[in-house]
Design brief:
mainly alpha; 2 domains; 189 residues; 66% helix; single chain
Length: 189
């Protein structure tokens, strides 16, 4: 009994370590590949040239029922279309990854360059989806921000900039200065 208990404790402990939600840093990869991935995740790609798989009906972007679509507000429709576009990039990346998996699982000889190309396409599409989702997240948060803080929504690796507290302070300082200048000009003019 104790060996079974030790075994299950060990399995659970291993699973906990392996599946813990945290940022993990692994080994470095080829610098050229890292640059490509960084560009794809930062800038996106043109994803119009990828097709669905014939026998994978679930690898499609789910559409909104017309009956539901008709009563949605313009804002909700716009956000839904943007999320659908990101979802389409994820689906296309999954299609490319499915092709790789099929090739690797077939047991037949393969063209490594072709598989590598498909793997890179998958990464590019996932990067593109990531970029789209970052923009959507920022845009969804904009209505909750005061006007002078909308500058926080510029593009960086971190959703609201690399040093949000410094940026907020700078914006606040500029706002105070412009209010003083505006008040001064109003009295003198």
């Amino acid at each position: 009994m104790s060996s079974d208990m030790e075994l299950s404790d060990s399995i659970f402990a291993q699973a906990e370590k392996k599946l813990k939600l945290k940022d993990l840093c692994d080994v470095q990869i080829n610098q050229d590949l890292a640059s490509l991935i960084n560009n794809w995740f930062r800038d996106g790609v043109d994803d119009d040239r990828y097709n669905e798989l014939i026998n994978c009906e679930s690898l499609v972007t789910a559409k909104t029922n017309q009956l539901v679509w008709d009563f949605l507000s313009q804002y909700t429709r716009t956000m839904d279309k943007r999320i659908q576009n990101a979802q389409t990039s994820i689906i296309k990346g999954a299609v490319s990854l499915s092709k790789i998996t099929d090739t690797l699982g077939s047991g037949q000889s393969m063209d490594v360059n072709h598989v590598l190309k498909q793997a890179m396409e998958s990464l590019a599409l996932f990067g593109h989806a990531n970029k789209q989702l970052c923009f959507i997240r920022r845009d969804m948060m904009k209505p909750d921000m005061r006007g002078e803080y909308l500058h926080l929504c510029s593009h960086t690796d971190i959703l609201f900039g690399d040093d949000v507290s410094k940026t907020v302070k700078d914006i606040s300082d500029c706002s105070r200065i412009s209010n003083k200048i505006g008040a001064f000009q109003g009295r003198g003019g």
